[in-house]
Amino acid sequence: MLADGREIIYFDEAPDSGRADLADERELPRVEPAGSEQGSVPDDRLRWDPLLGEWVAFAEVRQGRTFLPSAGDCPLCPSRPGKLTEVPAPDYDVVVFENKFPAFAGSFSGPVVGAGLYDRRPASGRCEVVCFTADHDASLADLSARRTSTVLAAWADRTTELGQIAGIEHVYCFENRGPEVGVTLQHPHGQVYALPFVPPRIRQMLARAQDYRANHGGNLFDDLLAAEVSDGLRVVVRNDHWTAFVPAAARWPFEVLVMPSHRVPDLGYLSHDAVAAFGDIYPAVLQRLDALFDAPMPYMAVWHQAPVGSPDARRELAAFVQIMAMRRAPGKLKYRASTESGADVWSSDVLPETAARMLREAG
Amino acid sequence: MLADGREIIYFDEAPDSGRADLADERELPRVEPAGSEQGSVPDDRLRWDPLLGEWVAFAEVRQGRTFLPSAGDCPLCPSRPGKLTEVPAPDYDVVVFENKFPAFAGSFSGPVVGAGLYDRRPASGRCEVVCFTADHDASLADLSARRTSTVLAAWADRTTELGQIAGIEHVYCFENRGPEVGVTLQHPHGQVYALPFVPPRIRQMLARAQDYRANHGGNLFDDLLAAEVSDGLRVVVRNDHWTAFVPAAARWPFEVLVMPSHRVPDLGYLSHDAVAAFGDIYPAVLQRLDALFDAPMPYMAVWHQAPVGSPDARRELAAFVQIMAMRRAPGKLKYRASTESGADVWSSDVLPETAARMLREAG
Q1: How much is the ipTM here?
Q2: Which of A110, B154, B201, B243 could share a disulfide with B11, CB 3.0–4.6 Å?
Q3: Three state DSSP letters for A98-159
Q4: A52 to chain B: which residues are within 8 Å by CB?
């Protein structure tokens, strides 16, 4: 446990590291349990947008979050004498701890207030940081197959653990990479959001999968993966357990879906072999993205998976990672301007077949 | 008509300018009518995303579009001796012409091919550029009330005209402002997209409005506007015809909706008085956004309106402009990273009531 009461969990590749027993020697004020910064502010920080029918979270505390610190002040590096960080240990493999500036936090006791136009409720939930390596200057693309598997195992563990908390409806694992994406800490890390509602994107995919079954009789994800493997035109790389391909209607200039061969509802259901095999394929995709324009590719990598408590959704939805890489040409980014941001109408300058070929050739 | 066959339309504030009769003296290859660059490529550039149930357009031609030219090479400035631009006239008030690098173009003859996973059809439609002023260094916030009204009148005209083209289902008017948004031409301008489908965002708002009527008996937009005016806490500025307010669940740090007092389905139905009164209120909002951090505010401003051909939708949906301003603090932008881009889960650092107060005080 950290000095302010936040939980920290080490995922060690060697046994008996003893790290879990190390104390956080910082003097930090105790985190308020209710998720409200002052403890007295009513926790109604989740507001209903009546025009789109979605919840929006408000977290003014995040305005003060750590912003692009120098390497010497990195809060995600291991602690060293005279420089205590978020991680009390002098080294680590993969470590997970509660986010100091969470958008979702606290318990689930608050009711929905209001009716229709202005519903509000607590922005309850939990946000965690997942550090991939103690090496400040590394990136996930550089790590060993084993470490990549350890990162996935950590996300799988958190999916299962956080999904058991009362009130949590969905666990969302992701990595933001690069200042172009808005990253405020450069140390290689991902995140986990345990959410008190099912994200709109997941509801949308579930509706499509149910519609697809009604019209075609099969599972949307199974049929899509089979068609991509059979066609092969957009496949980037694959092994027995995973296929990485550019979707036929990719919104981002270099977008890659990495799907397991055997569909599972969430990461906790991946086999040991699948987790191990992920380490062989994922870095190969990331390295190709970096090689495309000989520069670190800014991307968002997000794990879609089924909601926690809905058997119907868990029967249809598939766990897979979507990498949204946003550089379209040397020095040029894909922006989500008015058509994308205001209408959800996307246009892309790069044909998916071209993107897949470029990625294959970059290997 | 421009030299390559694209249409150009002047919206003059004084009569008899004679501009419409000026010839484009450039030698340009004729634009292919089908919307495919080569005339031989099958026009299947609109692809169905089966996971989200949305169309995505592909326009490789846009990779070569003009990218941040210097002021002397601006294609949106009036033509002058030795420097012929997209506008043949030596001056103009507001001018509209077809986009040289359209994401949607051509006629509507192509069928949907494929079934389920890989549907494709022509990316037919029309994209237009709307220049707000001949002054390269101005911005919409600087323009007179009259000019602002002329811009709105141009958008209203294009909404009505383009909505009559067979196959067009929706007309979308917007402005991207600032390099942070991805603007590639700095001359003050907006755009119009005439689309062969109803945008996902519009379908989503319609579903909410229908749901609201079923549950509450009234119109969602009418009730929302009445509640905001009555409450007043989030109102920025208003006059008899328009109210500008920060929505209670704003996703962007400084987001403003400007709604007409009398609901209309699209801009073509605004009264003359409403169009004129818009010139008094809209620049006041934009000036406040620029004043907040004493720097030009990067924003996307988009006109939501009802689809062309659906009487049910036209009875429920309202025309209004949504300004999405993305600077959250001096030198800091709001990014749409993995939670927003991958899950449609938004969190904001700025409370809407705080944003509204800051905008009122910036006036």
Answers
A1: 0.95
A2: B154
A3: ECCCCCCCCCCCCCCECCCCCCEECCCCEEEEEECCCCCCCCHHHCCHHHHHHHHHHHHHHH
A4: 201, 204-205, 208
